[in-house]
Design brief:
Elements (H helix, E strand, L loop, with lengths): L1 H20 L4 E7 L8 H11 L9 E5 L3 E5 L5 E4 L14 E3 L6 E7 L1
Parallel strand pairs: 1-2
Antiparallel strand pairs: 1-6, 3-4, 3-5
Helix pairs in contact: 1-2
The structure holds zinc ion.
Length: 113
Amino acid sequence: MHELSLAGNILRIVESAAQQDAFVRVRTLHLSVPVLAGVEVGALRFALESLAPRTLLDGAHLTIDEPASQAHCLECARDITVEDHGAPCPSCGSECWQLSGDRGVRVVELLVE
Ligand SMILES: [Zn+2]
C-alpha cells in the first residue's frame, strides 16, 4: 500500500531529525498533503498511527493539511492552484496545466520534547 510506505518514509525523516536535534518524543507532527498528491489522507493517518507505537511518534498528535495543489497554466502561463484533475485554470479557463511546486507530502512542522 502506497500510504504505508509513505508513512515509513515520514517516520525515517522524523528519526533522522531526532538524531540531529536529540529529541526523544514528538508532540505534534504537522504534514501537508496537497489534494492532487494522490495520497489518501485517511489511509496515511491510519498507517502512521499503526507505525507509531514504540517509535518517536508514539502518542504524537497528527495534524494534516490538505492545501490546493500548485500548478502552472500552459495557456496563460500563470501559476495557479487547482483542487481537481481536469479543473479549469481560474484565470483563463484552460484545462492545460501542469502540477508544479510541492507535489508530494511534506513535513511542515515537528513539535518535540
Ligand atoms: Zn490559464
